[in-house]
Amino acid sequence: MPRKLSADAGYFSAKNVRWLESVGVEPYIATGRLKHGETPPKVRGRPPSGLTPKERVARKLATKRGKEVYRMRKAIAEPVFSQIKEARGIRALLRRGLTAAREEWALICATHNLLKLFHATAAERPAAHPTGGWRVSSSLAPMPITATHS
Questions:
Q1: In which region does residue 143 sit, left (phi positive, over 0), alpha (psi from -120 to 50) or beta (all else)?
Q2: What pLDDT digit, counting tens, does each position of 32-90 carry?
Q3: Judging by beta carbons within 10 Å of its beta carbon (0-12, 13-18, 19+), is residue 29 exposed, middle or buried?
Q4: Torsion of CA 68, 71, 75, 80, to 10 degrees
Q5: 53 near 26, Cβ under 8 Å?
Q6: Where are the alpha helices (DSSP H) in 2-121?
Q7: Taking Cα atoms as reference points, which of 60, 63, 102, 109 lies closest to residue 83?
Q8: What is the pLDDT, as a whole number, of residue 99?
Q9: Which is higher by pLDDT, 38 or 120?
Q10: For residue 97, what pLDDT is reported?
Q11: Helix (H) or strand (E) holding 4
């Protein structure tokens, strides 16, 4: 079980916060957006007693440490969705029904991870022979190269 969990506002509920705290996980869940021109509250000293779960989490996110933990989402979770949507062009699931959608998503994630491994090890692979072998195309898929005879 992780010691910290960060999530966007869609996952916030007092029930989720209480459950996470009961199992020893520190919640860093956005509680909503600030209005235009609104500044986050300044946080100093110990939190007052009697705060609601929403007030506790909002206060925690306003601290320097809270901002650092929540900011990590940009480097960990968000790029994956962007790469799947933009680079691979997957904008919707094609299969219907919860089971089918889960299976399709698992396949998308597996191929995403395989592509990451393929590209991470590209420098370690020997160069292909000029008259045959494999090369990587711009579409990220391996393509056979055939020798041409004149």
A1: beta
A2: 777 777 777 778 778 888 888 888 888 888 888 888 888 887 777 677 878 888 888 88
A3: buried
A4: 150
A5: no
A6: 14-22, 53-62, 64-76, 78-82, 98-120
A7: 109
A8: 94
A9: 120
A10: 94
A11: strand 4-7
What backbone phi and psi angles, to 5 degrees, belong to 87? Answer: -70, -35
Give the number of other CB atoms < 10 A from CB of residue 33: 8
Angle at 69 between CA 9 and CA 1, to 5 degrees: 85
Q: Which amino acid is at 100?
A: A
* Token pair listed for 73: 């989402």
Residue with tokens 């299976």: 103
Token pair recorded at residue 57: 């989490």
DSSP 95: S
**Helix orientation angle between 14-22 and 53-62, rounded to the nearest 10 degrees:** 80
- Three-class SS of residue 26? strand
Q: State residue 150's pLDDT score.
A: 45
Structure tokens of 127?
Answer: 């160069």
Pairing of strands 26-29, 4-7: parallel
Q: Is 34 helix (H, G, I), strand (E, B) or coil?
A: coil
